[in-house]
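Summary: Need help interpreting a holo structure output

Steps to reproduce:
1. Submit the protein chain below together with the SMILES for zinc ion.
2. Request a joint structure prediction with the ligand placed.
3. Inspect the structure token block that comes back.

Expected: a single structure record containing both the chain and the bound molecule.
Actual: see attached output.

Input attached:
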Amino acid sequence: MTFMRKIFHAYILLGPEKETVKKAIELAQAANCDQTPSFCGFCDCCRRISTGSHPDLFHLFPDGSSIKVEKVRDVIFSASQPPIQGKRKVYVIHEADKMTQEAQNTLLKTLEDPPTAILFLLLAQNLKNLLPTVISRCQILDYSKLNENEKKISDSIKEILLEAISRPDLSKINFYVKQLTEANVDPDVMMEFMAEVYRDLLVIKTKSRAPLKNLDLLDKLNELAQNFSPRALVAAIETLYSQIEVVKSRGNESLAWYNLFVGLSEQEVM
Ligand SMILES: [Zn+2]
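--- attached output ---
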């Protein structure tokens, strides 16, 4: 099984716990199986890793609501010792975003200057509570897109997003932001949807032959298209992508929505 060409010393695995645990096990196998950088999945080493009985594999869980610094100190001491059986010691930190700031800062020193035979796998739903310094020292693997069903945007939320596109009424901004932050869909997914709608409008406006992404909204799109010039649509897409960047890099979600709506309302539409 081909996996990845090179294995780094630290990764953040983003996504639902079930998915990231599976990927963490595969990475641990890839780091230790004789077939590195692939893994076979059935040798003694691979089996021990998948059953959790490999002496160089460690799982770290939060105590209640946090992972405290003492636990991370134990990890760092253990990490300074060579592997017992495998090629690399692997530390899987579950719900890594529950590490306290102190715990993250302690881990940071080891991430900056890692022992050679080490692999840290930080599992998290999102980057919000991780320190930028920690994030910057890890490779990010995003598995959050795998579960498309959890990403479905409901019709009522779509309606709000379309309303915001047609005319972000700033007197309703608190209502919008509340609905959207409580929507149970990642903000970047909702913003991507808005960007797609703007792209569709641009397609209509420029009479391009490119296919529309939201054919189901054709009537609404034709109606909306009358309100914008192509230049305004491009500007709106740019505004959207700047806020998508913000929410993807652990920025404040509510603030990103505020900035987005204010940005869109201030833009000329024609
Ligand atoms: Zn193997």
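--- end attachment ---

Reviewer comment: The radius of gyration is 23 Å. The first strand starts at residue 10 and ends at 14.
Status: needs-info
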